[in-house]
Amino acid sequence: MAITKETQIGKIEVVGKYKFVQVRTDTVVIEDGEELSRKYHRHSLSSDADISAEHTEVQAVCNAVWTQDVKDAYEAFKASQEDNI
């Protein structure tokens, strides 16, 4: 009767013009090979985020989609929003 708890990357999605990366992390409790429960946590990352602590799969997606053009466009968008305040 062994109970274990593990964290898994459940889903990685790329969304929108500025390529926000949405990550779903699943926390799974397993007893004798059978899943007892699963809880979800979601967070999103923008191209100016520090991804050094993210899972390597998430880092790979971020590095693939966050081209310099995407980063520059997002920075320009943020600057335009600050001008409207």
Task: Write a structural description.
The model has no long low-confidence stretch (mean pLDDT 95). This protein is α+β, with helices and mostly antiparallel strands and 85 residues long. Helices cover 31% and strands 44% of the residues.
In short, what is this structure?
By secondary structure, this protein is an alpha+beta fold. The chain is 31% helix and 44% strand. The protein has a three-stranded antiparallel β-sheet.
Can you lay out the helices and strands and say which pair or pack?
Layout: E1 3-15, E2 20-31, E3 34-45, H1 56-65, H2 68-83
Antiparallel strand pairs: 1-2, 2-3
Counted beta strands: 3
Largest sheet: 3 strands, antiparallel
Share in β-strands: 35-45%
Rg over alpha carbons: 17 Å
Number of helices: 2
Strand order of the largest sheet: 1-2-3
User: What assembly state would you assign to the polypeptide chains in this entry?
Assistant: single chain
Helix content: 25-40%
Low-confidence stretches: none
Rounded to the nearest angstrom, the distance between the terminal CA atoms is 59 Å
> What structural category arises from helix and sheet content?
alpha+beta
- The average pLDDT is 95
Shape: elongated
Give the SSE order as H and E letters. Answer: EEEHH
